[in-house]
Design a protein that fits this description.
The structure is a single chain. The chain is mainly α. The chain has one domain. The protein is built from 6 helices and no strands. α2 packs antiparallel against α3. The longest helix is centred in the first third of the chain and has 44 residues. The protein is extended and about 70 Å long. The termini are far apart.
Length: 159
C-alpha cells in the first residue's frame, strides 16, 4: 500500500518529467521520517509506561516487606526510569539527525548539480545513524553481549 503513489506516478508516464511533484516529495518525507518517528514515540511511550508500572510494583513490594527507610530503593528505581528515558531520547535524536537531512533534501526544490554535490554528503548521516543504533543494540543487550563474549573468547581460546 505504501508505494502506491509511486506506482501511479510511474504508470501515468510522469516519471519522464525532470521534477518530482511536490506532493510526492511530502509523501516520501512523511513516509520515511514522520511516520517512523511517531511509531517510535508511541512504542517508547508504551515501553516506559510498562517499566514505570513495574518500578512502582517492585517499590511497593519492597516497602511492604521491609521495615525501615526505603528511600535508597526508590532512588535506584527512579534512576532506572531516567536512564531508560535518556536512552530512548538518545535513539530518537540519532534517528532524527541521521535520517532528517536526507529526507529534507527530497523536500527542497534544487537543481541537479546541487543535489549531486549535496547528496554525496547527505548519504553519510543515515549510515552513521544506523551504525550507532546497531552498536547501541549490542551494547545494551547484556545477554547478547555476554553470549558474544563467550563465543569469541572460546574461539580465541581466551579464559
Amino acid at each position: 500500500m505504501l508505494p502506491t503513489p509511486y506506482l501511479i506516478f510511474l504508470v501515468e508516464g510522469c516519471a519522464s518529467q525532470e521534477q518530482t511533484p511536490y506532493w510526492l516529495r511530502v509523501y516520501t518525507f512523511a513516509l520515511f521520517i514522520i511516520g517512523p518517528l511517531i511509531l517510535n514515540a508511541i512504542f517508547n511511550s508504551l515501553i516506559f509506561i510498562m517499566v514505570r508500572a513495574s518500578t512502582r510494583r517492585v517499590a511497593h513490594a519492597v516497602a511492604t516487606t521491609t521495615t525501615g527507610p526505603t528511600t535508597k530503593m526508590n532512588h535506584s528505581c527512579n534512576t532506572r526510569d531516567l536512564r531508560l528515558i535518556k536512552h530512548m531520547l538518545f535513539i530518537f535524536f540519532v534517528n532524527i539527525f541521521g535520517w532528517g537531512p536526507a529526507a529534507c533534501i527530497l523536500l527542497l526544490n534544487v537543481d541537479d548539480g546541487v543535489i549531486l554535490t549535496v547528496s554525496q554528503y547527505v548519504r553519510l548521516p543515515p549510515l552513521i545513524s544506523s551504525f550507532i543504533v546497531v552498536i547501541d543494540l549490542f551494547v545494551y543487550n547484556r545477554d547478547l553481549t555476554k553470549y558474544l563474549k563467550e563465543k569469541i573468547f572460546k574461539y580465541l581460546y581466551i579464559k
